[in-house]
Amino acid sequence: MYPNLSRRRFHVLALTAAALGIGFDEPARAQAQARPLAFASADPDAQAGELAQWFKTEKLVGLPDDLLIWFFKNIAPATYVSFLKLSARIYREAEFWVRRQERLPQGWTDQPFVNYIKYRQQPRQVYVSWMDGGPDAGAEVIYDETVDKDQVYGHAGGILGIQPFWVSLNSALAKTSSNHSLRDMGPQYLADRFAADTDRLLHAGGDGRPSKVEILPEVGGRRLVAVTWIRPSGRPTYYAKKIRLAFDLRKVYVRTFEAWDDDGQIRERIVVDNALARKLADSEFRPSNPEYKF
Fold this sequence. Notes:
Elements: H1 7-19, H2 26-34, H3 44-56, H4 65-73, H5 77-90, E1 93-104, E2 107-108, E3 113-120, E4 125-130, E5 140-144, E6 151-155, E7 165-168, H6 187-203, E8 212-219, E9 222-230, E10 242-248, E11 254-260, E12 266-277
Antiparallel strand pairs: 1-2, 1-3, 1-12, 3-4, 4-5, 5-6, 6-7, 8-9, 9-10, 10-11, 11-12
């Protein structure tokens, strides 16, 4: 019924069909779809830079869910490490608007803390304010290692929180809303912890690849690609038994970070609503700044 085709004629027909949008088979179509996501280099740092550029130019935004899941599932662990380190360099001096929940000594914080953060990696300087819409609204703290590397300066929220005071960086009072030190508020902390856990896992014989990739419901009108890693155990060997990083396909930073303990209880959740890398003035880390309420 069908005449025999020469190899040359078959290729001509295939190219014609491709130009017309006609596919001969699904594997060929899948290969064609995947080809735009192929990294140009095998080097993890180069791949991280390429991925960052794709985010900036919104190259991945219009791709279907199944292709995104396949792609993020197959990114090498070293490339994820390099991407987080690149993000930390880009936002080594920046403003962040975040919502945080943690399992504190008094229990899980059902209502997220809403924080505005100014962060400088070197020298380490951090300003944090607690915003309306979350607990402790009105509180402010400043950490400046050039003034005192072991203490923070701050005041509580509300009418009775006007009087500022110095407190030890790692004291219980300084950690009333977080298990972390103020020094850990920037993206470098996440990059360092993820790199250490990945290296430890690879040395133990694991492959370090994601355990699951999924598309989360839209947040603010945007899809998030959530990548989950499950470690052999949590602390003290690894930061957490399970962690999940969610990526906004338009932003070169982790949009959400979540961690679970060995019992399957969520331990912390951080949602970055926005981040702005910019040069910060020294006065932005001074209590005398007239914009603050010290």
